UniProtKB/TrEMBL annotation:
<comment type="similarity">
    <text>Belongs to the transketolase family.</text>
</comment>
<dbReference type="InterPro" id="IPR029061">
    <property type="entry name" value="THDP-binding"/>
</dbReference>
<feature type="domain" description="Transketolase N-terminal">
    <location>
        <begin position="27"/>
        <end position="260"/>
    </location>
</feature>
<keyword id="KW-0786">Thiamine pyrophosphate</keyword>
<dbReference type="InterPro" id="IPR005474">
    <property type="entry name" value="Transketolase_N"/>
</dbReference>
<protein>
    <submittedName>
        <fullName>Transketolase</fullName>
    </submittedName>
</protein>
<dbReference type="Pfam" id="PF00456">
    <property type="entry name" value="Transketolase_N"/>
</dbReference>
Amino acid sequence: MNTIDVSTAEDIELRILATRARRNVLRMLDAGGSGHLGGAYSCIDIVTALYARVLRHDPANPGWAGRDRFLLSAGHKALAQYAVLALFDYFPAEVLDTYGAFGTVLPGHPDMKKLPGVEANTGALGHGTAIAAGMAMAARTSVESWRTFVLLGDGELAEGSNWEAFAMAAHHRLGNLTAIIDVNGLQISGEAERIMGMEPIAEKMRAFGWTVQEIDGHDHRQILDALGRARVETSAPTAVVAHTVKGEGLGRLAGTVGSHYWTPSREELGEAFIELDRRLVSLGRERVA
């Protein structure tokens, strides 16, 4: 059983990266004035771990044929992917300051024609898994070793197209496909279970024929262990059900519906920068201790 070992030092480094990514999100909100912070922050630890330790990718050659594919099906969480792509030098950090500007390469939802590292245009929810399953099937047909990862939100599961794609992937035993479901429990209108209850998600995925792992989506050790196991799975697609907190990383917003789409005042934004900067200082002390 393959796992990805994480030492204490490596865990601290990942937490530093994730905090820097959260700070990049604030930088974009500073430029654009508002954005989908809540979902970006709930999945950003996962996205950071993927790019840092899991995906085969090359920022200097984003179109490398042997790269693993990552799709952000929940396209409104694009701030998370943009923030991490900037950390890994897919584009200059200064580009973050164009978020929300006319003609920016960082639109509200990912655009593969505008930004290196984006594999598909997403935003209309429910399509990412189908695209990812098609990519996984293409890799198998071409006898290629690259793998496909797709990240969805729990609110997104109300779209029926997801379940058609889940059924297709299981039927074809696409062991090279991993779906990560960001279960933060909230969506723009309130609690996901009140609006369209989808629990028990893990049991439903197992019933569809997927291998399932449930994790704390903010624990890098659990994230990497689950994704390490998924990398060597060959008999069935893997679903990683990641339990997260919407807006995790900012005390005043964590776990609130209001974090879904945040329009901060200058004072609120300044306080958020201070909170993350203090965390970076604290993590830096842990690193040298």
